[in-house]
Amino acid sequence: MDYIHGSETKMWRFPNTIYTVKPGDSLYQISRQYGVNVQEIRNINQITGNMIYPGQRLIIPIAVYTVQPGDSLYRLAQKFNTTVESFMVLNNLSSSSLYIGQRLQVPQYTEVVVNVDQANVRRRPGTNFPIVAVMVKGAKLPVTNSSGNWYQVELFDGTRGWISKNVVDFNVYGSQLPITTILGFYTLAEGPTLPSSYDSFVSNTDAISQLGLFMFRIDADHPTEIEKFGGDFTNEYVENLVRIAHENNIKIFPVIHNLLYERGNVTISKDTVKAMLATPETRAAFIQNVIELIEGYGFDGVNIDIEDVYLDDSGRLSAFYTELGRALHERGYFLSASVPSRVSDQPFNPFSDPFQYAPIGAAVDEFVVMLYNEHGWPGSGPGPVVSIGWMDRVLRYAMTKMPRDKIVAAVSVFGFDFNLTTGRNTYVTHEMAINRARQYNAEIIFDEETQTPMYSYTDEQGNQHEVWFEDEASIQAKVQRAWDLGIKGIALWRLGMEDPEIWTMLRNETVVRR
Description:
Layout: E1 17-20, H1 27-34, H2 38-45, E2 57-60, E3 64-66, H3 73-79, H4 84-90, E4 103-105, E5 109-114, E6 118-122, E7 131-136, E8 140-147, E9 150-154, E10 160-164, E11 168-173, E12 179-186, H5 198-203, E13 210-218, E14 226-228, H6 235-247, E15 251-257, H7 267-277, H8 280-297, E16 301-305, H9 314-330, E17 334-340, H10 357-363, E18 366-370, H11 388-398, E19 407-412, E20 415-419, E21 424-428, H12 430-439, E22 445-447, E23 452-458, E24 464-468, H13 472-485, E25 489-493, H14 501-509, E26 511-512
Helix pairs in contact: 3-4, 8-9, 9-10, 11-13, 13-14
């Protein structure tokens, strides 16, 4: 199936060097330190004056550094939070000697990839130290330091260990490609046309950073408790997913939600959350059950996907995230939240209004903005599930409420078939969309304005249809926009429904970080 593309659009890419402000720092000092204009730092961090505060995280827009008096590779590695070896490999340096005025590419991300069947990660650099994790061939690990014949690497749970240089390949990246986190949402089978996410996950572990299991729900009958969701699965099934994730250095967590109790009835969802949020005691009881779920399966944390909430529960919802974050962080666990899209502090729609971005963003490690469904809700009319313009609008608002490196843009890999005659729409996977285009001999075009593929057809009853869906090109555009905005990455809802070429694109055109 051929696609019609308009003119290519060049987009500006900037790297994500992060500087944490120290007491006594000024924008002028920081700009001198990195050789960057003060106004550039202001613009990219949305700062209007000169006020900065200790602990503030600033993005420094720098891809190439000009060597200054007193610089050494060791000092530059410290300044840019990387390693001497990364600088040398990226810049093809044969020695560590530098000269004033020399221009160096700044390493943005360094990883090692396991090249043997199994590799041990140890507590310290040496074979006599305890093993803390075992990785399989192809596992990717971010490099944070090196010592002799060992690399210090970061593991799925945020801890660090050491791996021998003899069992890995070393990769370092500058700013030529987008560097992104990929969160894959995982479900069980949803019927004959919607397979489970298992095959997609195990076939693409090299291009996935995190896995969120949409397999747990707040119990409507006992709202401080958690129930299994989505089908009849065993503990062994979940434990196997945890094992596969961890041996590939992928962070894995349950997604606990309040959805789909009864088709078309969101009152149950709202009432369930209201009962869970009601008092500090009910919230504490639920938080304890979250911790027990994490510990029972060996998860690395949790994603909370609360979506239907009464507006008068807004404050209690923010308090819940604050309390949950405190409890999880005390135990070293990761907190992710999936939150509906907003574009303003003003009331926007009843679905997203209860969600206060600033307090939730402060409480969590990762803020997953659910960008779907811009179109596709009943009565919406035809259009993309997530256009590039909608993505940009929501993310720019979110960036005013929290550090942008916490933000993940959740995008669809599915689409909708809009029946323009009846006004109804139906869900389509990528495979269904392509097959339907072939069935009706429809020409697929790539809509440049929304960066989304679509086509039109007339069915046997004479009804007019538009189909809007996602493919490799539309997901690449979203990865690129995430990189341009400096956010953490994107999430895919959900694995098993996507264009298989997405994975080829992620391997060849991006850097998927752990």
